[in-house]
Specification:
alpha+beta, 35% strand
Protein backbone atom coordinates (compact mmCIF):
# COMPACT_ATOMS: atom_id res chain seq x y z
CA UNK A 1 0.00 0.00 0.00
CA UNK A 2 1.12 3.53 -0.75
CA UNK A 3 -0.03 7.01 0.19
CA UNK A 4 0.13 9.40 -2.74
CA UNK A 5 0.33 13.05 -1.73
CA UNK A 6 -0.13 15.46 -4.63
CA UNK A 7 0.07 19.25 -4.51
CA UNK A 8 -1.80 20.73 -7.48
CA UNK A 9 -3.28 23.97 -8.79
CA UNK A 10 -6.86 24.45 -7.50
CA UNK A 11 -8.29 24.82 -11.01
CA UNK A 12 -6.97 21.36 -11.95
CA UNK A 13 -8.98 19.42 -9.34
CA UNK A 14 -11.85 18.40 -11.61
CA UNK A 15 -9.46 17.24 -14.35
CA UNK A 16 -7.44 15.21 -11.84
CA UNK A 17 -10.55 13.62 -10.31
CA UNK A 18 -11.83 12.65 -13.76
CA UNK A 19 -8.46 11.14 -14.74
CA UNK A 20 -8.23 9.17 -11.47
CA UNK A 21 -11.77 7.86 -11.89
CA UNK A 22 -10.80 6.55 -15.33
CA UNK A 23 -8.12 4.37 -13.68
CA UNK A 24 -10.52 3.19 -10.94
CA UNK A 25 -9.19 5.43 -8.16
CA UNK A 26 -12.10 7.16 -6.42
CA UNK A 27 -11.14 7.74 -2.78
CA UNK A 28 -9.18 10.82 -1.79
CA UNK A 29 -8.93 13.56 0.78
CA UNK A 30 -8.58 17.14 -0.49
CA UNK A 31 -7.23 20.02 1.60
CA UNK A 32 -6.80 23.71 0.83
CA UNK A 33 -3.16 24.59 1.44
CA UNK A 34 -0.77 27.43 0.66
CA UNK A 35 2.86 27.13 -0.30
CA UNK A 36 5.76 28.37 -2.33
CA UNK A 37 8.28 26.80 -4.60
CA UNK A 38 9.97 27.94 -7.78
CA UNK A 39 6.92 30.02 -8.62
CA UNK A 40 7.96 32.36 -5.78
CA UNK A 41 4.65 34.23 -5.63
CA UNK A 42 3.60 37.43 -7.33
CA UNK A 43 3.16 41.15 -6.68
CA UNK A 44 -0.32 42.56 -6.19
CA UNK A 45 -1.65 46.08 -5.66
CA UNK A 46 -4.35 46.54 -3.01
CA UNK A 47 -5.76 49.99 -2.20
CA UNK A 48 -2.77 51.63 -3.81
CA UNK A 49 -0.24 49.60 -1.85
CA UNK A 50 1.95 47.05 -3.57
CA UNK A 51 2.63 43.82 -1.69
CA UNK A 52 4.24 40.48 -2.38
CA UNK A 53 2.11 37.33 -2.22
CA UNK A 54 4.60 34.57 -1.47
CA UNK A 55 2.36 31.72 -0.36
CA UNK A 56 0.13 30.66 -3.24
CA UNK A 57 -3.13 28.72 -2.89
CA UNK A 58 -2.82 25.03 -3.79
CA UNK A 59 -4.74 21.82 -3.15
CA UNK A 60 -3.27 18.82 -1.38
CA UNK A 61 -4.64 15.43 -2.40
CA UNK A 62 -4.04 12.42 -0.18
CA UNK A 63 -4.81 9.14 -1.91
CA UNK A 64 -4.29 5.70 -0.35
CA UNK A 65 -3.92 3.01 -3.02
CA UNK A 66 -2.98 -0.64 -3.25
CA UNK A 67 0.34 -1.30 -4.99
CA UNK A 68 -1.36 -2.31 -8.24
CA UNK A 69 -2.81 1.20 -8.65
CA UNK A 70 0.25 3.32 -7.81
CA UNK A 71 1.71 3.88 -11.29
CA UNK A 72 -1.63 4.39 -13.02
CA UNK A 73 -2.68 6.92 -10.36
CA UNK A 74 0.60 8.82 -10.69
CA UNK A 75 0.33 8.93 -14.48
CA UNK A 76 -3.28 10.14 -14.24
CA UNK A 77 -2.29 12.96 -11.88
CA UNK A 78 0.76 14.00 -13.91
CA UNK A 79 -1.09 14.20 -17.21
CA UNK A 80 -4.22 15.88 -15.87
CA UNK A 81 -2.54 18.40 -13.52
CA UNK A 82 0.03 19.56 -16.09
CA UNK A 83 -0.58 22.97 -17.67
CA UNK A 84 -0.42 22.73 -21.46
CA UNK A 85 1.65 20.09 -23.23
CA UNK A 86 4.93 20.69 -21.41
CA UNK A 87 3.76 22.08 -18.06
CA UNK A 88 4.66 25.25 -16.20
CA UNK A 89 6.39 26.21 -12.98
CA UNK A 90 3.83 25.84 -10.20
CA UNK A 91 2.01 22.79 -11.58
CA UNK A 92 2.80 20.91 -8.37
CA UNK A 93 4.52 17.86 -6.94
CA UNK A 94 3.69 14.25 -6.16
CA UNK A 95 5.10 12.33 -3.20
CA UNK A 96 4.70 8.57 -2.74
CA UNK A 97 4.99 7.22 0.80
CA UNK A 98 4.84 3.69 2.16
CA UNK A 99 1.61 3.07 4.01
CA UNK A 100 2.10 0.60 6.85
CA UNK A 101 -1.54 -0.02 7.67
CA UNK A 102 -5.05 1.22 7.06
CA UNK A 103 -8.15 0.55 9.14
CA UNK A 104 -11.74 1.05 8.01
CA UNK A 105 -13.46 2.39 11.13
CA UNK A 106 -16.93 1.13 10.20
CA UNK A 107 -15.97 -2.55 9.81
CA UNK A 108 -12.56 -2.84 11.43
CA UNK A 109 -11.01 -4.17 8.17
CA UNK A 110 -7.26 -3.73 8.00
CA UNK A 111 -4.68 -3.46 5.26
CA UNK A 112 -5.43 -3.52 1.54
CA UNK A 113 -9.09 -4.44 1.99
CA UNK A 114 -9.62 -1.27 4.05
CA UNK A 115 -8.72 0.96 1.09
CA UNK A 116 -9.80 -1.20 -1.81
CA UNK A 117 -13.20 -1.59 -3.36
Amino acid sequence: MKLIVAIIRPEKLEDVQKALNEVDVYLMTVSDVRGCGRQRGYTEVYRGQEFQVRLLPKLKLEIAVNDAFVESAIEAIVHSARTGDTGQVGDGKIFVLDLQDAIRIRTGERGSSAIGP
